[in-house]
Amino acid sequence: MISGMHDWNLLAEEIRHWGRELGFAAIGISDIDLTEAEAGLTAWLETGYHGEMDYMASHGLKRARPAELVPGTRSVITARMDYLPRAADAEANLADGRRAYLSRYALGRDYHKLLRNRLQRLADRISARVGEFGYRVFTDSAPVLEVELASRSGLGWRGKHSLLLNREAGSHFFLGEIFTDLPLPASPAVADHCGTCRACIDACPTGAIVAPYRVDAQRCISYLTIELKGAIPVELRPLIGNRVYGCDDCQLCCPWNRFAPLTQEEDFAVRHGLDSATLVELFAWSETEFNERLAGSAIRRIGHERWLRNLAVGLGNAPPDDVIQDALAARADHPSHLVREHVAWALDRQRKT
User: Fold this and answer.
1) How are beta strands 157-158 and 214-215 bridged, if at all?
2) Fewest CB within a 10 Å sphere: which of 70, 83, 191, 281?
3) Annotated active-site residue in 96, 140, 181, 321
């Protein structure tokens, strides 16, 4: 129960200040009318672009209706936290077919717990000011339209690659939300600054950005290497190159990411040399080593089997090399059919190249 009368504009400013104190780069506030997003969401789902991500469809239009997802919601606090670590040059890594490329966001510790804890602390600060209030914190924990909410709250605009863009920070940041029953005033939205640029569309290795602002997840390398549980489609494997966990190509080519700041969060710093590791050395990790070295990492969630699957594809795309072929041959009789099938493909490709 919210006690007393409050100056909601003043509270909104205080929330932004508290957010900065907690390490967020920016805080915004959105209203809950996402009606304009419903048609696009419905069309995207009906086309099947979500692939195996059934959770995207299971909540239906609740995703675009905050007050149905969390009854009583009157406003949404959105938060941005920069994650770009100081790391080996991404493009040089991609250009070296013997190295493994992992998305920049996954080089350090998993962001979910850190971001959720910071949002909870922000909610606690609000509670201390206004009394008990209704809220729920989200960090990828439910099918929230976070880019839509973030763009409506002034944190940036939706880029043609479907990620949020910000003039001062590019797109290398995480988003989180607090759904609240507080009547907070919405922040002003910002204009779209993509103009006629189509760099991200042209750069996508698999052609997953099928139209401006529309991504076919079934072709997206992030989906193929993280979300997809089974075999990676054979026709897409050569296009994946050495990208073994996620893909940053649409961000690396974006002019706005020239301004992306390095993160100040120690948890996002590179661990275990993942920014410059070779495919062969990572492929040699046992399941125990995988679990121990990637404890606290988002990568661990895909499991050792899919880790080997992804690396096998990368090794198959690498320049022909006896060391690579020996590494693949050592996994040819792996207990997992999924791993064996991708290793066989990789060996065949190595020997034919």
Assistant:
1) unpaired
2) 191
3) 140
Q: Which two structure tokens, joined as six digits, stand for 6?
A: 């409050």
Q: Residues 262-285: pLDDT tens digits?
A: 999 999 999 999 999 999 999 999
CATH number (3.40.50, 3.40.630, 3.40.109, 3.90.550) of 8-86+105-180 reads 3.40.109
Q: How far is CA 16 from CA 85, 112, 296, in A?
A: 24, 21, 29
Task: Supply 5's token pair.
Answer: 């009368």
Rounded Cα distance between 306 and 198, Å, is 32
At residue 265, the 3 state secondary structure works out as coil
Binding annotation for cob(II)alamin: 63, 140, 164, 175, 222, 247-248
Confidence band, pLDDT 50/70/90 cuts, at residue 48 = low
Q: Is 260 exposed, middle or buried (0-12, 13-18, 19+ CB in 10 A)?
A: buried
Mapped onto helix, strand or coil, the DSSP state of residue 342 is helix
List phi, psi (to 5°) of 211. Answer: -165, 160
Annotated active-site residue 140? The verdict is yes
Report the binding-site residues for [4Fe-4S] cluster.
194, 197, 200, 204, 220, 247, 250, 254
In this prediction, residue 33 carries a pLDDT of 86
List, in order, residues 6 or more apart from 143 with CB less than 8 Å away: 55, 56, 58, 59, 62, 63, 69
Binding-site annotation, residues: 63, 140, 164, 175, 194, 197, 200, 204, 220, 222, 229, 247-248, 250, 254
- Locate the domains of the chain by residue range: 8-86+105-180, 199-352
As given in the structure block, the two tokens for residue 191 are: 């204009």
Given a cut of 90, is residue 2 above it in pLDDT? no
Q: List the structure tokens of 266.
A: 């120690």
